[in-house]
Amino acid sequence: MSKKSTGITLAELAADLKLTSGTVSRALNGYPDIAKATREKVIIRAAQLNYSPSASAKRLATGVVNTIGLVLPHMSSTITDSFFVKFLEGAATEFAKTDRDILLTTVQNNESEVEVYRRLWRTRKVDGFIVVRTRSDDERINFLLENNIPFVSHGRSDNAQQYPWYDADNQQAMENAIDHLANLGHKNIAYIGGANDYHFSKLRLAGFNAGLTKHNLDPNQPIFSGPLSEAFGYQCIQQILSEQPNTSAVICAQDKLALGVYRGLYQANLQPGRDISVLGYDDISASAYVNPPLSTMAPEQHLSGAICAELFVLHLKTTDIAELQRIAPVRFIKRHSTAPPPNHFR
Amino acid sequence: MSKKSTGITLAELAADLKLTSGTVSRALNGYPDIAKATREKVIIRAAQLNYSPSASAKRLATGVVNTIGLVLPHMSSTITDSFFVKFLEGAATEFAKTDRDILLTTVQNNESEVEVYRRLWRTRKVDGFIVVRTRSDDERINFLLENNIPFVSHGRSDNAQQYPWYDADNQQAMENAIDHLANLGHKNIAYIGGANDYHFSKLRLAGFNAGLTKHNLDPNQPIFSGPLSEAFGYQCIQQILSEQPNTSAVICAQDKLALGVYRGLYQANLQPGRDISVLGYDDISASAYVNPPLSTMAPEQHLSGAICAELFVLHLKTTDIAELQRIAPVRFIKRHSTAPPPNHFR
DNA sequence: CCCTGTTCCGAAAGCGCTTTCGGTCTAATA
DNA sequence: TATTAGACCGAAAGCGCTTTCGGAACAGGG
To answer: Hey, what's the torsion of the CAs at B223, B229, B233, B239, to 10 degrees?
Structure first.
């Protein structure tokens, strides 16, 4: 349509150099059959004339678009505050090193999540995907696997052995949480977790149970599962206080739950960390500033995007997916919401 | 290179229909010179065969890529927790309605911000940009303006009359803040703001001053400017306490500053909201959970991305940019960090 | 019955690159 | 000096679409 005033074309550059566009192309792309002298001449002239190749043309000719799709899960912003930006920033930066970009999109109301993936793939807008917020049985992953579409996921699913992923060690993190609490002397530890379709919820709960047996604690602790929200935490702690009064500590699968627990505790005139220990997960920004500051498990956030990106480009070259699965330790941050149980609990 | 197993091509579809690819293309794109009957036949068959056009080919042929660039400012994650995801989510959703995608990237260490914009434009990867985190004198905006590249910005700059933007009413917000505090009886109000190269900082400070004169307050209030960090807030409040002991309220241009002020206050055995009123800005997620909950100014976040996207597509059709400038009110959230000054201040 | 005007579709020229295939020219080998 | 092998570049065929142009077929008007 409109001739955008956007620089010079390969053919024009070639004409200027009195060469063929084919030759110039090969010169620029480092083909070995171009004389060193002419290659240099081409490169210099290209820079002088501000030549940059049209991405569309290049893509059409080569069939690779150097773009990775990332479709935001619905309401991803409500989940873990700044995590996604950090992730995106890390991934974008890593991808930029190999001149790849991220195609960001969301799912519209009238279409399903896999439809978005299918559309992006079928229109050849992307070479593959990064998928986030995985579920145990994840239809996106199943779709990608079935169609042989390259991807790496942040987080695992039930069939995690089949594809590349990066994940925090949710299970170990929860075991460490129990270690911490058990060593302080806690015996009755409640657990407030997320809905179990998210795979990380499953893993965290597994870690919780593993920790229990490791420390010979009663395996029948109060366990709740629901939305990872402040409201649900509030609701759970009320139930705990009324029905399980000997509970001396509660582990929350997410800091927001802990915030709700705090509220319930204060409302019952109980002091988190003194009367009842509270442990969170994720280290959201609020956690450092609540009173008392919340002890929590902090998965590494910024690097995770970069690692996923790195795994993706490796994935395009490697066939051995076993080498493309990375698990990362979760750091325990001790603040002031965990302490030995009060005397009457011992 | 590799024939990706990714659907059928226009020519193949045409062959199947015993038509020319040109005809099929026009049928699919609603040209008026195609018989209704054949058009329908084409559409049905296309659906049956799962035809979807190659984005690269389409882009090359039409010259429009239906992609909007958004380059993340460096360390954008550290600034205002979940804002960017909400923004991105809103923008992506709005863009998806017109079948546009967002190209997300960052600036590499070895290149400047405008270089990224230039590269994205020159390689025709995008039709335009959304720019965020504007400065008063913003080289990105200047560059885009000079080169006639379509864009809309979130936030303004000094030359804001020349281009489309969406912005919160920073100035009015601060005037309202003073209204609130002055009505409570405060006379000595300190201001902790950001570095003045960010345009919103300038506007907020302007609002602060406007509020002062409106209420006939001494225009020489303690004013600080620096990074919008907890640490800087902490540092400022200490200085205020020692050098301006009659200060009864402090307005922070960002909630994180307020968090630092809280820390300094507690350390001096002062209670925010009782001994000294504290007012924040942005309503970051921590603000509702600190003790006491922080009163703050809450700009609308989720919609802003969508509006920027909407403005962008309007921008492509409209020449009258005056119609493409939107200002949004900022909501005051009263929590418990503001109260009348203690008696000894009156 | 001829002429004009529509309606509808085919042909073909791009869009701006990549990449294979030859062909020419020079330099090395015998 | 005749022969062969590289080295280097031009020619041209795509990649998968869009869009202009023209022509065939058919209708209606006189």
So the answer is: -70
